[in-house]
Amino acid sequence: MKEVIAFLRAVAPMTDGLQLALYNTVTQVGFRRHGFVHQGPAPCTNLWFIEKGLLCCYDQDQDTGRQYCTWAMEEGNIVTCVNSFDTGFASTESIQAVEDSIVWTIDRPQLERLTAGYPEFLYIRLRLTEHYHVHGRKMDAWRQKAARAVL
């Protein structure tokens, strides 16, 4: 849990109350290599902080039916199936452990309670959303460049 707190504190200062609330809310889970952290089509209702390991998110091409990796994230990152987490709808994606992994997880209702109870947490969420939005754009540009190189 100390890794989660350190990660969030690097974004912005946190009150002792928020840190205690996180300790009492966030849960540690281990996944063996090839284990599913999330499996579609179930709605994705959790965020996961990767303490140790590597996770990969897979989706399926609607035209070819082929499965492809939409992202791979290593320790020190927060992951989810973004569209499903944001909307609450069924997920087309699955998240799988590429290697034995340890993650810390929080579900959507817990996240919303922390946000409502601790204003500084809202700021942290905003900064992390911006960070991962930029990261996602860079990944999209890299994939487009790789696809052009193949053609």
Give a verbal description of the structure:
The protein is α+β, with helices and mostly antiparallel strands. The chain has a single domain (2-150), classed as Jelly Rolls. The chain is built from five helices and eight strands. The chain has helices at residues 2-11, 16-25, 82-87, 108-117, 119-150, and strands at residues 27-31, 36-38, 46-52, 54-60, 67-74, 78-79, 94-97, 101-107. The strands form two sheets. It has a four-stranded antiparallel beta sheet with strand order 1-8-3-6. A hairpin with a 6-residue loop joins strand 4 and strand 5 (67-74). Helix 4 (108-117) crosses helix 5 (119-150). The longest helix is centred in the last third of the chain and has 32 residues, at 119-150. It is globular. The N and C termini lie far apart (45 Å). 21% of the residues are buried.
